[in-house]
Each structure stands twice: as C-alpha cells, then as structure tokens.
TrEMBL record:
Pathway: Protein modification; protein neddylation
Protein name, as recorded: NEDD8-conjugating enzyme UBC12
Stretches assigned to the UBC core domain: 18-161
Coiled coil: none
GO molecular function: ATP binding; NEDD8 conjugating enzyme activity
The UniProt record lists the keyword Transmembrane: no
EC identifiers of the protein: 2.3.2.34
Residue positions of the active site: C99 (glycyl thioester intermediate)
Main EC class the enzyme belongs to: transferase
UniProt keyword terms in alphabetical order: ATP-binding, Nucleotide-binding, Transferase, Ubl conjugation pathway
Pfam families with a match to the protein in the record: UQ_con
Catalysed conversion reaction: [E1 NEDD8-activating enzyme]-S-[NEDD8 protein]-yl-L-cysteine + [E2 NEDD8-conjugating enzyme]-L-cysteine = [E1 NEDD8-activating enzyme]-L-cysteine + [E2 NEDD8-conjugating enzyme]-S-[NEDD8-protein]-yl-L-cysteine
C-alpha cells in the first residue's frame, strides 16, 4: 500500500526537465552585458526574446530582435536563435538564421546562454565575412568595405540593397538627409 501512495504522489507532482532547469539556472546567473536585453517569463525560460543594440561599428544605433528557443535536449544541443527583422548581415540570412560557431560545430554542454548572447552581440561588432550565410553581404564586407557600410546604413533605414528590401531597425529619430542613396 505504501508503494502505491508514493507512486501516486510522484506522478501528481510535475517534473521539470533538465533543459528547463538548466535554462532557468543560466538565466538566473546571467550578468548584464551592455547592448543586450533579455526578456522571458520566469514560468517559461525555454523561450527568450533577445534585443541587441550595438554601441559601435557598422550596426551602431540599430535594434535587432531575436527569438531564442531552448530545445528539450538542452544543454546537449545548442539553443536556436532567429533574427526577427530582415537585416543585411554576412552572418544572418534573409530568413533570420544565425551563423555562429558556438551554435553549430563548437557547441558544448558546458557553454551558457550568457556566452551565446555575447557571441551574437560580437557578430554585430565584428561581422565575419569568412563564415557567411548572406554571401552578398560577406563579399561586400571582404572586398568593398565602403559599399558594405553604405548598404548596412541603407538597410537599417528600411531601404533596398540590390533588389531586397530590409526592415527599419534604427533607434530614435536620425536625420538621414545626408545618407540618401539612389540606384
């Protein structure tokens, strides 16, 4: 009889997955990174909204939002990030997929969400043309850095680069009269 009670008792208590507990711990241990804002519901650390606001570089003054999904087998598998606005970036494709080595081949269970957040910020401070998802942007960055800079500015204002229109991601009201591009 006692075995039946303990079996019934344990089945009525919700069990939290290892992924849930680890994600919750990673978020509790998170130390603020300048330029990064995270939002999540404490009841569900498996879905995180990330906001990146670079303070320097090509993407300065932009606001880039990401959705992060923590997989059920986290930390054995890397979290999945998707950039919400359509942006012009060598390491982020037009669908928002992110190319960051620690989210792919270099993922280890010992890595934390904090490190991934810092890695995503780093992509905006130092875009990498050698590991591209957007080959056009990577080619421009590698071969024509001045054109790349103009393309980033145009795209961040919600303009077109080649035949592709991008989402406006600039923070605040900027006087952009001096950065008009006609093609």
């Amino acid at each position: 009889m006692q075995k039946e009670r303990s079996a019934n008792k344990s089945s009525s208590t919700p069990t939290l997955s290892v992924a849930f507990l680890r994600a919750k711990k990673d978020l509790q241990d998170y130390e603020e990174i300048p330029g990064i804002t995270i939002e999540y519901q404490s009841s569900n650390p498996m879905q995180i909204n990330l906001k990146v606001k670079p303070s320097e570089g090509y993407y300065k003054n932009g606001i880039f939002k990401f959705k992060c999904e923590i997989p059920e087998d986290y930390p054995n598998r890397a979290p999945e990030f998707k950039c919400i606005p359509k942006i012009y970036h060598p390491n982020i494709d037009l669908e928002g997929h992110v190319c960051l080595n620690i989210l792919r081949n270099d993922w280890k269970p010992s890595l934390s969400l904090q490190l991934v957040f810092a890695g995503i910020l780093h992509l905006f401070l130092q875009p990498n043309p050698n590991d591209p998802l957007n080959k056009d942007a990577a080619n421009d960055l590698a071969k024509y850095p001045l054109d790349f800079k103009k393309n980033v500015e145009r795209a961040m204002m919600g303009g077109y680069v080649k035949d592709e229109q991008f989402d406006k991601v600039l923070e605040g009201n900027f006087n952009t009269a001096h950065t008009r591009y006609y093609y």
